[in-house]
Amino acid sequence: MTTINTETATSDHRARLARRRQERFRRVEPRGRREFTARERAEMLVDAGSFVEMTPMRVDSDGKGAGVVIGWGRVEGRGVVVASHDAAVASGAIGAVMAETIQKAQRFAIDKGYPIVYINDSGGARIHDGILALHGCGEMFALNVKAQKRVPQISLILGPCAGAAAYSPALTDWTIMVREQGQMFLTGPDIVKATTGEDASAEEIGGAQMHTETSGVAHLEVTNEGEAFHATRLLLSYLPSHVGGPMPLVAPRPPDPVAAERLPYVVPDKASVVFDMREVVDGVLDAGPRLELMPAHAPSVLTLFGHLDGRPVGVLANQPASRGGVLDAKSSVKAARFIEFCGRFGLPVVTFVDVPGFLPGTVEESRGVITHGAKLLKAYVEAESPLLTVVVRKAYGGAYIAMGSRSLGADYSWAWSGAEIAVMGPGGAVALLHRRTLRDAADPEAVRDELAAEYRENVARPYVAAEAGILDDVILPEETRDRLVDAMATLGYEGGADARR
Amino acid sequence: MHAARAEIVGNVWRLVAKEGDRVDAGDLVAVLETMKMEIPVVAGAPGTVRLRVREGEIVQEGDVIAEIG
């Protein structure tokens, strides 16, 4: 950390510097629900004492600061760049100088291969700067996109972020919002009222709850600024610093013993009965912290980071406990985004499958479920990371394909011995294939059950897929962890993402 | 008054609670059937059940299955 000497010195030039520093580093008490100043936020995010501010003397034409504190520090010893909006200068509105300063941080992150964290607290483009503000914001967005191919980008929303200040986070990888403090919207309550007649509060238009539950614009809701920094550091702990960089390894830990012991009994025999897929995850992955992203949005799929034998992995799983674990437009977008991210940074993906299918109906079709489901297929095919898939119970139709199937490039694919994989479930298949038999039967119910059992054994059992070489093996639940760990070793995962290229 | 709603489109396969039953938060009120999955509908608060659907009826996402108060 650069130590700033603010003591008054004897000579003139020393006194002048001391005065300048006193002005620039004066603490402006944060307004509203804000807890810390822009500089304090940057310092708190990184390891204690590691923050180095870049161009601290930069001023705008009004003589005030650039409107953003930029610099870099270390998180668990690894370099991280920070750009922290200063709401004490023009409410954090982004003018030409502020945009240019943020771009400096972005270029530094891209050049160094350090993740960048944007601490957003800005009313949008600075009106007085006109086209210069817009141009600067646009250049900043362009660098957001350029950075996507190079380093992880995380956005924290610690105040009202309007217009241009809402777009930059949308071009980054993960967005974390503080409840009842951070907001994101293109236009605030006044313009909404004038345009649509809606009497909506800033919280209703773009609050953390709305964006983490309904819209999916943000991916994690926290209750205060300290938690936001903690969540960011936890998120970074699973990620390489840049594309192709080594994975941050931790000491391997066996799974939670209670969860591991329960694993063979978690999935109910009856395919229609729901269960909590988190129990499967806990029975397989290393014990210790997980980070679930978008827990409240489209919860019929789970997206989380955890460790397997000390190596970070991304887990995508159907969650039968919510909406039966179906894939629909929203859950497809959530899943696709997660796989795309893991694929870009070489993070291995473990997919746990128990999916009844894509949800039918006019509502889903009109939401564009075809297009959104296709994004999930594309994400798997394009992923540059090890893909390991485990069918724990059922996988039917297009949803089987979409959930990390061998056909989309899974490096390894297994099914538990009780699994069913088929074009459709036994009920639907029998009704379609044996329409006439059922119509003419004296006891259609009994005949249907008999035919369904036959179908389950002859068509849907995983041995059909294993015999065709589409599954690598049929396994028991308790064998899953060892198979995954061995598989990652064969994929040269220790070497990071480069190993697979 | 609390409304126990359908979390997904489906048909009302089984009403577990009867009209006028007392339930606690977390008690099973009904089971929907969607894509051969049994989707539980649970009470979000304690109270007396007033059913708003019949078995076999098709319900849309967000429809009230029972009011509990």
Question: Which keywords apply here?
Answer:
heterodimer, A: 501 residues, alpha/beta, 2-enoyl-CoA Hydratase, Chain A, domain 1, 3 domains, eight-stranded mixed β-sheet, 41% helix, B: 69 residues, mainly beta, OB fold (Dihydrolipoamide Acetyltransferase, E2P), four-stranded antiparallel β-sheet, globular
Describe it:
The complex is a heterodimer of chains A (501) and B (69). Chain A has 501 residues and is α/β, with parallel strands linked by helices. Chain A is built from 20 helices and 17 strands. Chain A has helices at 12-24, 38-45, 96-112, 130-148, 164-170, 189-196, 202-206, 208-215, 225-236, 257-266, 277-284, 329-345, 362-366, 369-382, 397-402, 426-433, 435-440, 444-460, 462-467, 480-490; strands at 52-54, 68-75, 78-85, 116-120, 153-157, 160-162, 174-178, 183-185, 220-222, 291-293, 301-308, 311-318, 349-355, 387-396, 412-416, 420-422, 473-475. The longest helix of chain A is centred in the N-terminal third of the chain and has 19 residues, at 130-148. Chain A starts with 11 loop residues before the first helix and ends in an 11-residue tail after the last helix. The model of chain A is unreliable at 495-501 (pLDDT under 50). Chain B has 69 residues and is mostly beta strands. The relative contact order of chain B is 0.40. The model of chain B has no long low-confidence stretch (mean pLDDT 95). Classes of the chains: A alpha/beta (501), B mainly beta (69). Chain A binds chain B through residues 271-274, 320, 322-326, 356-357, 359-361, 363, 425, 427-428, and chain B through 7-9, 33-40, 60-61.
